[in-house]
Amino acid sequence: MADLAALLDKEASAEIEAILAEARERASAIVAEAESEAEALVAARERQAQAQREAARVRARSAAQLEAASQRLNAQQEAIESVFREVEGELDALQNDEDRYRTVLEALLKEALDGATGTVDAVIVHPDDEAVAKSVAADVAPNAELRTDASVRLGVKVVTGRTAVANTLPGRLEALRDDLASEVASALTNEEG
Fold it and tell me: Would you say 126 and 148 are in contact if contact means Cβ atoms under 8 Å apart?
């Protein structure tokens, strides 16, 4: 019986050892799988964090570029407005130079007459320009009545029947404003570049 007990004890020990070996093997596999999943999770989180950092960097760069473009456009707009203010100042100075202004007013009147159809009934100028306009109109449109209107500034309006042709320096400047602003902006861009 002692042999039987020893044999049973030996078989039980072998069985226990086999179960323990299998358990150790399964535990090792579970630990290896858990470590692999943990490494994959850490790698995924690192990639996600890197992507978020890169996205934040791109957003910050885009915001900075937009701000710079906005400031550049504001500066260009201010420069354009400054140019137009200077032109307005030059136009006012021109009006104070009687000889130059007479030549300009005469050219404006001739152009307005060329654009008018029919008999000229009246030439209208600003009240401040009446004296200069009298001599100009006497030479260019002697039969037209000379009238004054405060809304006609730095130029003339020619009336023929029901139509009127206005030819003023501020009107011309306004008509060309977009083209001139584009040219000024282009010149400013070329200076920056």
Answer: yes
- CA-CA-CA-CA torsion for 127, 176, 104, 97, nearest 10 degrees? 70
CATH superfamily of 97-176: ATP synthase, E subunit, C-terminal (3.30.2320.30)
| Cα 121 from Cα 145, distance rounded (Å) | 6
Q: Which of 157, 149, 144 is nearest to 109 (CA)?
A: 157
pLDDT at 191: 66
CB 156 within 8 A of CB 112: yes
Taking only the tens place, the pLDDT of each residue in 80-91 is 888 888 888 888
Would you kindly state where each structural domain of the chain is located, as residue ranges?
A: 1-70, 97-176
Give the separation between CA 70 and CA 77, rounded to whole angstroms: 10
Mean pLDDT of 150-155: 92
